[in-house]
User: Fold this.
Amino acid sequence: MEWGMKNRLSRLIQKDGRALFLPIDHGYFQGPVHKLEEPGKTVEPLLPYADGIMLTRGVLRSCIKPSISKPVILRVSGGTSIIGEDLSNEEITTSVKEAIKLNASAVSASIYVGSKYEHQTLMSLSKLVNECEEYGIPVMAVTAVGRELEKREARYLALSCRIAAELGARVVKTYYCRENFEKVVKGCPVPVVIAGGPKVESEFEVFSFVYDALQKGAIGVNLGRNIWQNNYPVAMIKAIRAIIHEDATPKEAQQVFEEEKK
Assistant:
């Protein structure tokens, strides 16, 4: 592995082998999501506790201060919307040259295994990896599922993650599933981080699935809505950080959350 690739990955994945990524890229297909109407204001108090921030070039340029020291994971796929016919109809929207100009530590793109546009998104990922490897930029593949929520089971997630790794992704972001998640991670030869999905009913539920995912082999999270849509987002990210980097249990994370709320 080249020095540049190692350096970028070391900025994202911390010395303990864990990572807490904060995504605010939801607007690329959902528009102004609740509590993300002004991304810069939403993310500013959270950045000190994140290991990396995931976003599009438009939000990075217009909403994020150039003085930030946190590494950027640049979302480079898109081209569809929540009201469109098919969320899987994505292509690459941002060049690697642009990612370099924006000083991105990594880029991310979605793949939609089993969808109408499976081949298109897998080829997009492959071409992106080909180019990024030339410049030492890691690619994080996002195993997206569109509207078919029933696909968020171990068999499907394991298939998607393995394909992403086989095509050259350096990191894979996937959904957590309660049953057999360890099989998803075991079958993926590159680091796995979990997505949060829709905001859940309680903080303890988030702490529990984050903790369980780490026990089953994930290196960390890429959580957005379950952090910045919470009424106490700073308390939330501190509690999740305690699980990831301090090996806190869900109960201990809940205690951190309650203390920080005050």
